[in-house]
Design a protein that fits this description.
With 167 residues, the chain is of the alpha+beta class. Helices cover 15% and strands 36% of the residues.
């Protein structure tokens, strides 16, 4: 079963969150900085001041995706897992597109299901280590604690994101 959350950036990069159903390996023990933050507004990037794709010390600062002409503002995080069961860089054999597959812990997976139910029809920002990775629209609830961030990743970027999520 695959449930999707998707959006397209100004650069036509397709970003999606996909719930998958593979068994995860053991839980990591290192803390991570992963946040799911409701998007409260959008501005043209030119009107966004110092907002950027770079890591920001201000957790309330607006951010934008790489090559995106939109700057996003956020509500406080609705889920900030301290660790994940797994995070792996993967390449689809048919499209050759790189993704990052994530399995949340059981408790965080239940919270994520409630969050995605609550925000169907709205955007959630996925922020890792202070960087906005994706700003998908929630299309359906994701209830199994597994998601996939797909976008304009190359192999090195996908591996780096997965490594950072594993801690």
């Amino acid at each position: 079963m695959h449930a999707r959350i998707a959006t397209a950036s100004a650069a036509a990069a397709w970003l999606a969150l996909v719930a998958c159903s593979n068994d995860p390996p053991a839980v990591s023990s290192q803390p991570i900085s992963l946040q799911f933050r409701p998007i409260t507004g959008q501005l043209p990037a030119a009107d966004c001041g110092s907002a950027s794709t770079d890591v920001t010390p201000d957790p309330d600062a607006p951010l934008r995706l790489a090559d995106d002409e939109i700057c996003y503002s956020f509500a406080p995080s609705v889920l900030s897992p301290s660790r994940v069961r797994s995070a792996e860089a993967e390449q689809y054999p048919t499209t050759r597109a790189w993704t990052v597959s994530i399995a949340l812990t059981e408790d965080d997976g239940e919270t994520f299901a409630a969050v995605t139910r609550r925000f169907v029809g709205n955007q959630l920002g996925i922020v890792v280590d202070g960087m906005l990775l994706s700003a998908p629209h929630v299309q359906t609830p994701i209830t199994d604690g597994r998601l996939e961030i797909a976008g304009d990743f190359d192999a090195a970027r996908a591996r780096d994101v997965a490594r950072r999520l594993r801690g």
